Amino acid sequence: MSMDKWLDDDETKENKRRRNEIYSSLSIEEKKDLKQQKARDLVKKDKITNSLDESKKDFLTKVLEFKDWLNNRSYIKGDIERIQTWVENLYFMIDANKNFNNKARFKTGEDNLNNSYKSIPLKFLDEKTRIALNKKLKGTKKTNSDNYYLRKLKIIVKEKLKDAEYYNILRDILES
Question: What's the sign of the alpha-carbon dihedral 115, 120, 123, 128?
Answer without folding.
Answer: negative
